[in-house]
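Q: I'm writing up a methods section and want to include an example of the input and output format. Could you take the sequence below and give the corresponding predicted structure tokens, formatted cleanly so I can copy it straight into the document?
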Amino acid sequence: MRATELGELSAFVAIADAGSFRRAAARLNLKPSTLSHTLRMLEDRLGVQLLLRSTRRLSLTEAGQALLTDVQPALERIDDAVERLNQYREVPAGSIRLSVPHTAALHVLLPRLREFSERYPDISLEISADNGFVDIIQDGFDAGIRLRSDVPRDMVAVPISPPVQVAVVASPDYLARHGTPMTPADLQHHRCINRRLIQGDGLQRWEFMQDGRLLRVSVPGKLVLNDAGLILATALDGQGLAYSADQLVAEHLAAGRLVRVLADFSPRIEGFCLYYPNRRISVTLRALVEMLKDTRVPAAH
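A: Here is the clean output for your methods example:
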């Protein structure tokens, strides 16, 4: 088999697995137009249509599904064989794509990046900082970092930071107009900015410690968001109370743009985890996991 044919088959499998040219292109570090051209070349060479394309989605033809069933396991075995060669190297080589919230990028990864690059100079690390929901499999990432509560249940999760302090905050303007809650029960009379959970379709319940007991409170509010950065911006705009991690709001508290409330009731929650699909991981990713796991960076305040 020629190298170009192997490349075309690898591109086809990546597109079928990702479900879009954009996601597959990100995974392969190619332009979507390049990937589309590669697929057309494969279809022309084989004389059959492999994908049905529409403006919204891609789907496999019957021939495409048959080819994927036969080819995907073979390509995975080739990838595994190449990956096993890493054990013969003095230091691992390869690439890692990570999806990381801005806070974790600054407080968990950044303090370790120099050490990691010096210890593993042949590993290329790409970090995508995004506070919103990311499907690491569909978007072509090798792993992600999120708070433990946000890690999908079907992923392997490795703790890489200490617990995180919770903070309930609001702008001075909001508190001047609506008053300051003194206990968690007072939240029922306030405008709270709700957060849609990544897992499932429920809303996050706010956790508090009261009289030695953990309370999980469903808070009222007409605004529901799924992005930590947008929740913070909305709180800064005076639209309600926000439930956040103290690392996210520390700068705004220090500047007086936000005020912390219910501090005596606010607990610590499980910290950040590096997570990846439940399958054997590469030597390169294992190197990053071990570094972050062995020396956990203290939480920033």
